[in-house]
Amino acid sequence: MPSRSGVGHIGDVREARSMNWRLIFGLSLFGLAMGIGTVFVIPWNVEPFCWLVIFLLCAYLIARSQASNRFLTGVALGILNSIWITASHLIFFDRYMRHVGSAVNSALPTNGTVIVAPPIVGLLLVGPLIGLISGAVIGLLALAAGRFVRPPSSVA
Question: What is the domain count for the chain?
Answer without folding.
Answer: 1
